[in-house]
Amino acid sequence: MRFVKSERPHSHDIAINKRRLLRDLNAVSRIGIGNHGSVTRLVFSIKELRSRQFLIHQMRQIGLQIHIDRIGNIFGKLDGHNAKTPALLVGSHLDTVLHGGKFDGTMGVIAALEAVRTLREQKFTLESPVEVVCFVGEESSRFGYSTLGSSLVAGEVHAKDLAYAADAQGTKLADILASMGIYRNNLRSMRRDPSTMKAYLELHIEQGPILEAKKKPIGIVTSIAAPTRFRVVFTGQADHSGTTPMEMRKDALVAASELIVAVEEICRRYSHMAKGRVVGTVGAMKIEPGVINAIPGKAELSVDIRSITADAKRRVARLVHARIREIARRRKIRAETLPLREEDPVPLDRRLIRLLQECCESRNIAYEIMPSGAGHDAMQMAKVTPAAMLFIPSRRGISHSPLEWSEPEDICLGAQLLLDSIIRIGNETT
Ligand code: GLV
Ligand code: MN
Ligand code: MN
Question: CB of 224 closer than 6 A to ligand 1?
Answer without folding.
Answer: no
